């Protein structure tokens, strides 16, 4: 599903400064405050904006960045990657080539690395772990959105399947809900109505 230039502009503003006010964003990109507000609510609801975090400078905190290359049995890679991803020190976990996992590790103390290496090596089906310790951070920033034409991967709110082409869009309680087809839309709207009716009876 496509996002337009306004959505992209809002996302770019927030990537520069997640604490920018709605008014500041509106002024910067030339739209009204309510527009920014409703677009942002929508982007949050779609899971495109997942949160607002603080960016810390790793070098000033003497934190160390480490990359791990983990090799597993090809079929075990997804499971091993999930286990690694569940750990707080794993900042980013990528799989791709069968049996290869790349892990971006954020370390508070250099000494913690030995424990992490031990832990990862002990996971079932892990054949090998290599570590690359960074000494200086050259760049550590979220990627900037490249263009005004973005395509967002939003699953159908009812069946959770992919939405191919234009989504069926319904506004409920001031928010958009997205569906792959009219059947899903009908099912969802019925369910939504029942839930609302129930919550009115038992507030
Ligand atoms: Zn659906």
Give the tags:
203 residues; alpha+beta; 4-stranded antiparallel β-sheet; globular; binds zinc ion
Rg from Cα: 22 Å
The end-to-end span amounts to: 36 Å
Average pLDDT taken over every residue:
87
* Chemical compounds bound to the protein: zinc ion
Helix fraction, binned, reads 25-40%
The SSE string, one letter per element, is: EHHHEHEEHEEEEH
Enumerate the spans where pLDDT stays under 50 for 5 or more consecutive residues: none
How many β-strand stretches? 8
Structural class: alpha+beta
Strand residue content: 15-25%
Tell me the strand order in the biggest sheet. Answer: 3-4-2-5
Give a quick precis of the structure.
The protein is of the alpha+beta class.
Helix-strand blueprint:
Blueprint (H helix, E strand, L loop, with lengths): L1 E2 L1 H12 L5 H8 L3 H13 L18 E9 L4 H9 L4 E6 L4 E8 L4 H10 L4 E8 L16 E2 L16 E5 L2 E5 L2 H20 L2
Antiparallel strand pairs: 1-6, 2-4, 2-5, 3-4, 7-8
Helix pairs in contact: 1-2, 2-3
Please, could you describe this protein's structure?
The protein starts with a strand and ends with a helix. The chain is 35% helix and 22% strand. A hairpin with a 2-residue loop joins strand 7 (168-172) and strand 8. The chain has 203 residues and is an alpha+beta fold. The model has no long low-confidence stretch (mean pLDDT 87). Helix 1 packs across helix 2 (22-29). The radius of gyration is 22 Å and the shape is globular. The protein has 6 helices and 8 strands. Bound molecules: zinc ion.
